[in-house]
Design brief:
heterodimer; A: 196 residues; alpha/beta; 5-stranded parallel β-sheet; 4-stranded antiparallel β-sheet; 6 helices; 9 strands; globular; B: 219 residues; mainly alpha; elongated
Chain lengths: 196, 219
């Protein structure tokens, strides 16, 4: 259960959003929508603990999530705009680092996003859609309770969106929570929407 | 501990994939040392006199070279956020990066030290001490340099700001390092100076990562 109460976020001198409240139950999904600059990415960064809220409280199962940031970080996966991939390393080596952090097996995670054939290619030769898939493969490594996805389907083909849909469904069946910022339709059935 | 090792191994792996970066620092070090015989003249006594200071200054300048990309490259592709979310406390993350910088830049400089020492006519008896002194001095620079890299991350002209911030902090390392090598060259005990250098590392090891962690968090 993730609960945000009365959250406010400032960027420089400007309030991005204020008085924002939401709650997502176990197994639930929340879609963040709104025009560019509405603060969708800022909210995801805030929930990840990367920026501190100016006001308000973020609670995980009733406890303040920000009081122990390393523990909060360990229960979440954050997919940002950047794919966080190193061009000189192969797909497998890029994922291998995260497997060391979180546990899990690299080969099935690559297969889950249809990247098995590209595993040993350096990331610099991959297309932008393939890079996005590799970034998404991090989600398939090891379970985490909270997924924060910033425009997860940008650049993905239909087959990959379907694969992501399967991952999301399995994650939610296991009691996982998804927060996703998007302009595109996402394979998240009966997700609630938060318009910023 | 597992995450600490993972970040460190990633750093080493990336450096091995880009050997040119390490090689550039080593070549810079050797070339700066090679300039001194031309400037001072080839008189052996004059060269040996300036050798300790020249070695230290050249090594620290060379070790500065890769620092401005230490966090810059990570921030650009989104890796920095993933590293901050790795579950490692930020100070531990920075320590791991500093250790990675020392192993991929400081150690290769040590490998090139005999060449530089020979060009500066440093007595062979002092080479061992020179290696220890440079190893400790570059460790100090890796630690303070990582803090500087975190502080100047996102700053315009961060690459220029970084040396201005870090080199003054490295002055004690130059003083004690050069004194140790001088003592060894004069057949005296270098131990007190090396111990002082070690003390510098011991101070920098907790202070610099805490400062860097604060800077990374405050973004």
């Amino acid at each position: 259960m993730l609960e945000g109460t009365d959250l406010a976020c400032w960027r420089g001198e400007r309030a991005v959003f204020a008085g924002l409240s939401f709650s997502v139950a176990t197994g639930g999904a929340l879609l963040l929508t709104g025009p560019n600059g509405a603060g969708k990415s800022s909210l995801l960064r805030l929930v990840a603990g990367l920026i501190r809220p100016v006001e308000g409280r973020l609670a995980w199962n009733g406890e303040d999530a920000m009081s122990d940031l390393p523990a909060h970080a360990r229960r979440l996966r954050y997919l940002s705009h950047g794919d966080a991939l190193k061009p000189s390393l192969t797909a497998r080596e890029n994922l291998d680092f995260y497997a060391r952090l979180w546990g899990g097996e690299v080969t099935p995670a690559l297969a889950a996003l249809g990247l098995a054939d590209l595993a040993d290619l350096p990331v610099r030769v991959l297309s932008s859609g393939q890079k996005r898939r590799l970034a998404l493969a991090r989600l398939a490594l090891a379970p985490a309770a909270l997924w924060l996805l910033d425009e997860p389907t940008v650049g993905l083909d239909a087959a990959s969106v379907e694969r992501l849909g399967a991952l999301l469904a399995a994650h939610r069946r296991g009691g996982g929570i998804v927060l996703a910022a998007t302009h595109l339709p996402l394979p998240l059935p009966d997700a609630e929407e938060l318009r910023l | 501990m597992k995450a600490f090792a993972a970040v460190f191994l990633r750093e080493v792996r990336l450096a091995m994939r880009h050997p040119a970066d390490t090689l550039a620092a080593v070549m810079f070090f050797v070339l700066v040392c090679a300039l001194f015989p031309f400037g001072v003249g080839p008189a052996p006594e004059a060269l040996a006199r300036i050798a300790p200071g020249a070695l230290l200054a050249a090594a620290l300048l060379a070790a500065l070279l890769p620092l401005d990309r230490l966090f810059g490259a990570e921030a650009e592709d989104g890796s920095l956020e993933q590293l901050l979310l790795s579950g490692l406390p930020p100070a531990a993350l920075v320590t791991s990066k500093a250790l990675g910088h020392w192993v991929t830049t400081g150690l290769p400089l040590l490998a090139a030290t005999p060449i530089a020492a020979a060009m500066l006519n440093l007595p062979v008896e002092a080479w061992g001490t020179a290696l220890i002194a440079l190893g400790l001095a570059t460790a100090v620079l890796s630690l303070f340099g990582t803090a500087g890299a975190a502080l100047t991350l996102g700053a315009r002209r961060g690459g220029v700001l970084l040396p201005l911030l870090v080199l003054p902090l490295a002055i004690p390392a130059v003083i004690f390092g050069a004194a140790a090598i001088e003592a060894a060259a004069a057949d005296l005990s270098a131990r007190p100076y090396l111990l002082l250098l070690g003390a510098l590392v011991a101070v920098a090891a907790p202070v610099a990562p805490l400062a860097a962690a604060f800077a990374l968090r405050a973004d």
